[in-house]
User: What shape does this take?
Amino acid sequence: MFILITVGILLITALLVLSARVFLPAAGYTWLIAVVGAFLAWASVFAWINKTDRLQFLIWQPVSLFSQSPTFVIDPIAWAFALSMLTLTLSVIITSVVRSNFPSALSWVGALVLSSLGALAAVADNPVTLALIWAAIDLVDLIVQLRFVEEPTLGERVVISFASRVTGTMVLLWANVASAAQGTTLDFHALTSQASLFLPLAAALRIGVLPLHLPYPGRSALRRGFGTVLRMISAGSSLILLARIPAGSIVSPLTPYMLMLIAFAALYGGWMWLRAPDELTGRPFWLIGVGSLAVAAALRANLIGAAAWSCALILCGGVLFLSSEPNKWLTRSLWVAVFGISALPFSLTASGWSGGTGFFLAWLPLLLAQAMLVSGFIRHILRPPASREYYEDQPLWGKNIYPVGIMLLLAMIVFLGWFGWNGSFQFGNVIAGLAASALTFGLTWFAPRIRILNPVRAHWVRPANLTWLDWLYQSVWNIYRQLGRLSNIFSNILEGDSGIMWTLLFLALFISFFTQRIP
Assistant: This one.
């Protein structure tokens, strides 16, 4: 019941905003409708605390083909994910008053619909349900990205990214096939060791850890606002899978190798985030870096830590990507988000290094990756005000409302670190937290003194030039296109006037080949 209330409020609000946009385009209360609806949905999530709610649809037919039906269950981890996503959505709508495209009703509609899908992904209780929601989110992402892409080469990047996420969904479905081959049904509550190994891989593929996604150029990116909702909810709905893996189920000789691979992906994401010229250019690397830490926590059987890193990815990343006004006091308050991703005691990510097992050699690159992420976060906070966007032509009421959205995200970072779910009020691994903090201090101190740590527009950061990853993707893409052209030539030959002759010729060749094999 609680699930339907929250999702229903979001969808009804989206419908009201869209109707006002179509039938009353001159109305000045569209933003107010969006804010009130998003606030009511956000407030309804607090009713999930300490509640157990289950919503299951009728079994699909035939039962022999569909062994599971869409099922949604509320638990503390689902509550933390849903609260993070809806807080981000509400903050995006509130802070939109200072954007240059205000009012933007269609963006608010998209944000509300995406947040409803994200909330459903958070409470999905089986892989079939989660795969269906992933498909809906991916379709929205693809349509929106292609809508804003102008160059064919950028369209190829969008398709490659979409194919990677679809591959992640297919890996999840393949885990279902692997479970069926062993005579069991894939379920989050009872996973075989073989099937559970596929789940971190599926999440890694969907957030861009494998393969390492490069950012879209600035002119094609969906900047602040709806772009932030799109990126954060897509990543959060993928990472919820990590928190559904039963503890101790990932037992495989391949786990240490996967952990090392994820550690290097985290290093790559952290390094590129540290070198990014601004936070929006580095946003894909933030997803890769923090997402890798979440996947690594799941591989170490630290599922609460994986959920904590995922919530930090949404909340701490969202507050930085939405911050555009060079307000002195607001900038200082962003240090709350730095504490949130520090893994120090009683922070949001305090459980990020707690317990669990894993390959010890992977800890050093993972700690260094976290230090790079935190150091890069600090550098983006301290950027000169002149390098930030500033909307001087906005009305005074808008500038006064804008900080509310930022402070709401910061409040949720503190709130989830102290109350409400399994990862709150954790002392954590003090040694790991202090080690990451020491590395962060060292990187921050050395950054202005060592040129390689400076955020220059190097050839791997500037979107205009290609990297070795671009060359790799383009090579694979060119091979695919050449095969497509060869297939088209072959089809045109067979469909042309001489098609019958070529068909008879191939038939004769096949017959002669097989007759020679007959003794």
User: Anything to note?
Assistant: The CA atoms of residues 127 and 173 lie 7 Å apart.
